[in-house]
Amino acid sequence: MTHPLPDPTVVAEDVEDLKATVAALTAQLAALTGTQPSPGPGPSPAGPDPEEEGYPPFILLLEGDEYEAELRALAEWVEGVLVPGYLGEASQDARWCQQWTEHTVAIARLHALWLAWQELTDPATCGYTGPSIWHRDHLDPCIRELRAPTGPFAGCIKGERQINHRLPSRVPSAWSTTSP
Fold first, then answer.
1. Exposure letters 30-47 (e unless 16+ CB within 10 A, then b)
2. Are 155 and 99 a contacting pair, CB within 8 Å?
3. For the chain, what are the domain ranges?
4. Number of C-alpha atoms within 13 angstroms, CB side, residue 157?
5. What does the DSSP 8-state code read for residue 166?
6. In the prediction, which pLDDT does 92 show?
């Protein structure tokens, strides 16, 4: 059995995309480590120390004012990008808690999702496939877990002494002082 050969134009484009990605990553690594890019194969230097390079640490490792500042920044992204863009469709099986900041598991998952979004939506570091990878590898699994029947919002019930919940047709801001 013979297999058809791939279109040379498509293969050439894929090779050029890979070359551009490798060049961008090599330049980024050189900038982060303060070294010159190496011309060929060989041992790679150790990666940068995230704290020394100014990368944001995982939110659950922060305390006090640092935690609050990171949570505010996360909330801006969740409520400005994620909720309006991805969580507005109503569904009986897809819960969303308007007070998601009260759920530590939701904070952890959403922060990890946000960190991945920051990295994978930058064409300089990820080319043009970063957003697709973010959707497939990060957004979809995260949202499935958050909205699952056993996810962090599964026990959310609307009531006076419970965290206030609603289906995601229109999700109000967790930082808002007025109720919808």
1. eeeeeeeeeeeeeeeeee
2. no
3. 8-37+47-55, 57-155+162-175
4. 5
5. B
6. 58
